[in-house]
Amino acid sequence: MDNSKRTFLKVAGISLLGIGSKPLQKALAGNEEPKILPSPEALTGKRWAMVVDMKKCKEDCHDCIKACHQVHNVPDLGNPKDEVKWIWKEPYEKAFPGDENKYSQEYIDQTLKGSQFILLCNHCDNPPCVRVCPTKATFKREDGIVMMDYHRCIGCRFCMAGCPYGSRSLNWRDPRPFIKETNKEFPTRTRGVVEKCNFCSERLVKGLIPACVEACKEKVLVFGDLEDPNSEVRGLLKSHFTIRRKPQLGTMPQIYYIA
Amino acid sequence: MYDTGKIITGLIIFLCLITFPLWYDALTGKAAVKPELKIITKEKQCVEATPYMRDSHMKLLIQWRDQVVRENKHLYKGSDGKTYTMSLTNTCLNCHSNKQQFCDQCHNYVGVTPTCWNCHIIPEEKS
């Protein structure tokens, strides 16, 4: 065989051409039909958010909590230490600590201070739980929903330490025996994973609004897209003064409370 | 080489022992017990062809899982052209309605314990 420099360079040149052939092949083969598609009936938004009008909320009504915990198979473990919650109630001073000042009575309705606020995951724009999660089990979707991928959760509870709103609960034990009525269409969780509100992502994809919003007869909860200037939530923000939980922390919570 | 005879005999005995299951089956003509699964389905065709489902269903399910949870895409176009919702409980188990006689048969046989059912609900078994 002739091992001259000239033949070597020829072979090397031809081989280099081969590198370009794969993208060319792909381009010529034509586009294959995609196998995985988004749902056509899904509700789509750029920045989901919620406005809570506490003046309409009734003290002894728990319809939103019941509806949420029923559709998402949230267990009732019966003691506050093991408690698992997606949406719950807390008095003003616990929901908005540090918000008190001499003049707050001028802009916050005094009757609200005695009432029980409805709390849930704030689906923050700058979510600390996402930043601290070592496995990327919790992540922020493009539409602003802070989601959990329970398959990846290792139960380290960094997110629970990171969340300033107490929106996350760990399953200290198998939750299944503590679920009163199981919704067969939605999975339960297992021991050792953290769970929280998912803004009903499984309902949005079917074109339904969140279960808590649907269950509330008093129209306390309003859900919508903040990026859409004609949405109901934007209208409420325009016409009312609203407060958010612990905005000073810079997490940019997306649940607004009409004060 | 010292002890050639001993070493070679030893190796032959070792090989015989380790291949015991293979030649035992060949000699006796008795194949090992195969898993018997009952396919009780409403449909005749799964989302992909049976051979593909048989050896790659786990890959397909992982792809489904990642697409649904992380990409928010919920529909899958099967090779038969029909569109399916990607859901283990609501799509797979809706048709393969008996987990014990379908999933468990092979999983027990090959000794794998998928953790799917710790969270995903098994619908009531129909025989």
Describe this protein's structure.
The complex is a heterodimer of chains A (259) and B (127). Chain A is of the alpha+beta class and 259 residues long. Chain A has a single domain, classed as Alpha-Beta Plaits. Chain A is 26% helix and 15% strand. In chain A, a hairpin with a 5-residue loop joins β5 and β6. Chain A is elongated, with a radius of gyration of 25 Å. Classes of the chains: A alpha+beta (259), B mainly alpha (127). The interface between A and B is medium-sized, with 26 and 22 residues.
Q: Which labels suit this protein?
A:
heterodimer; A: 259 residues; alpha+beta; 4-stranded mixed beta sheet; elongated; B: mainly alpha; two-stranded antiparallel sheet; 49% helix
- Give the fraction of residues assigned to helices of chain A: 25-40%
Low-confidence sequence ranges of chain A: none
- Physical arrangement of strands within the biggest beta sheet of chain B: 1-2
Shape of chain A from CA axes?
elongated
* Total DSSP helices of chain A: 10
Largest sheet of chain B: 2 strands, antiparallel
Order of helices and strands of chain B: HHHEEHH
**Shape field of chain B:** elongated
Provide a short characterization of the protein structure.
Chain A is about 25% helix and about 15% strand. Chain A is an alpha+beta fold and about 260 residues long. Chain A has a single domain, classed as Alpha-Beta Plaits (2-Layer Sandwich), CATH 3.30.70.20.
Topology:
The complex is a heterodimer of chains A (259) and B (127).
Chain A: H1 5-19, H2 21-29, E1 36-37, E2 48-53, H3 63-71, E3 87-91, H4 92-95, H5 104-107, E4 116-120, H6 128-132, E5 138-140, E6 146-148, H7 158-162, E7 169-170, E8 194-195, H8 201-204, H9 211-215, E9 221-225, H10 232-239, E10 242-243, E11 255-258
Parallel strand pairs in A: 2-11
Antiparallel strand pairs in A: 2-9, 3-4, 5-6, 7-8, 10-11
Chain B: H1 4-18, H2 20-28, H3 50-71, E1 75-77, E2 83-85, H4 88-95, H5 103-110
Antiparallel strand pairs in B: 1-2
